Amino acid sequence: MIATNIGTNELNHLTFAGMDTVDLAKEYGTPVYLMDEARIRENVRTYRKALSEAFSGRADIFYAGKACAFTELYRILTEEGAGIDVVSRGELFTARKAGYPVNKACFHGNNKTDEDLRCAVSSGVGYICVDSMDELLALEKICAEMSERQAILIRVTPGIDPHTYEAVSTGKVDSKFGNAIATGQAEEIIRKALTMRHLNLKGIHCHVGSQVFAEDVFERAADVMLRFMADMREKTGRTLEVLDLGGGYGVRYTEDDPVLSIPEKIREVAAAVKAACDELDFPVPYIYLEPGRSIVADAGMTLYTVGSVKRIPGYRSYVSVDGGMSDNPRYALYRSRYTVFSAGEVEARETERFSVVGRLCESGDILQENVPLPCDIRRGDTLAVCTTGAYNYAMASLYNRLPRPPIVMLRDGTSRVVVRRETLANVADLDV
Ligand SMILES: Cc1ncc(COP(=O)(O)O)c(C=O)c1O
């Protein structure tokens, strides 16, 4: 199996976090997002322990809530003591609703509005990661008006291509995010930030991309960023103390994806950071990573019910399900791969290849193509799409006014609804 929390039981049913997914589909209806609480906690702990060990206690995570954000998740993160990265007032509001201590949060985004900035400052977020000169000037003005002094990071683009898909690669020079070292804009904004009376420049941040497996991407990013920090020290006399290397480690969606050992990866980054710091005679900064996907992806699974099964002789066969791109737009957006099972017949005697499609009025509404499923798959069967914890619920839409599925959290053989299913009344709630 692609993850250790997925298995089969004596009925040949798919299990997730030790629970029978066919039973869960019956109990909660479909489509439904399942989440494995133990796996979320385990992933958070793996990162935090490895960072602490590799950097002698001077490193932590900001969990990137863009991957998945809801109140119970922030409660779990509060209990785990992890930092968070938020990119909107909506995420910040959700974290605060959960009682999350937002002084451990970093507020990101390439176009924060004045209201976002005011809200972040008045809420007391730990850092605001400033994305542009425009924003720097706006934030200084806002902090002056509020008589506040805000700790900031500056987003820098190190110009590294992580060899992932163009659509999810944001660390190159030509990007709507950040300030490039190569164009001199990173230096310019650092110099300016140091003159701001209401801003306390603590360090720099980069994010080179997502679903990254390539060998040394984070090491190369760390090296470029540290050289830039040393250069800034020489030019301005100021030693920046924080280096945030962003998120991006890849997860296993299919058997073809490699297994990444996060502790090993972190040890490699630590070795690169220490080597660069030694060479540059620069103090090792406090390090942050911002994992999103690798915290929640394998803690998620989506269950659907099969509707029509259609075979077009000489072309292909389709299995339609009762959700689709409105609850998981990732195949439509990036051709993302997933592992799909017939939850009630995991090991089938005879299989056939199907395109698994949704029920939305869009030919691109495909969840996955070329999926081996039992030949006798039929209306009413339960289908499971694995590894849907990241960027599924978070990207869900109301397209076709299909109510969004609930999230059911699994823990120690029990289940509970942590986000309710949208109702038809909810769908028209805001209409006047
Ligand atoms: C600034 C920043 N940090 C962290 C992340 C999380 O990345 P991932 O979910 O791939 O770990 C992203 C994702 O786009 C991001 O833009």
The structural domain count equals 2
Which fold name fills CATH's third level, the topology of the largest domain?
TIM Barrel
Q: CATH homologous superfamily of the largest domain?
A: Alanine racemase
CATH level 1 name of the largest domain:
Alpha Beta
CATH architecture heading of the largest domain? Alpha-Beta Barrel
Ligands, deduplicated: pyridoxal-5'-phosphate
The stretches of 5 or more residues where confidence is low (pLDDT under 50) are none
Which band does the percent of strand residues land in?
Answer: 15-25%
User: Sheet bearing the most strands, described?
Assistant: 9 strands, mixed
Provide an overview of this structure.
With 432 residues, the chain is an alpha/beta fold. It has 2 domains: 6-36 and 297-427, Beta Barrel (Lyase, Ornithine Decarboxylase, Chain A, domain 1), CATH 2.40.37.10; 108-291, Alanine racemase (TIM Barrel, Alpha-Beta Barrel). It is 30% helix and 25% strand. It is built from 12 helices and 21 strands. The strands form 3 sheets. Strands 4, 14, 15, 16, 17, 18, 19, 20 and 21 form a 9-stranded mixed β-sheet that branches. It has an 8-stranded parallel barrel with strand order 5-6-7-8-9-11-12-13, surrounded by 6 helices. β14 and β15 (317-321) form a beta hairpin. It is globular. The model has no long low-confidence stretch (mean pLDDT 96). The structure holds pyridoxal-5'-phosphate (PLP).
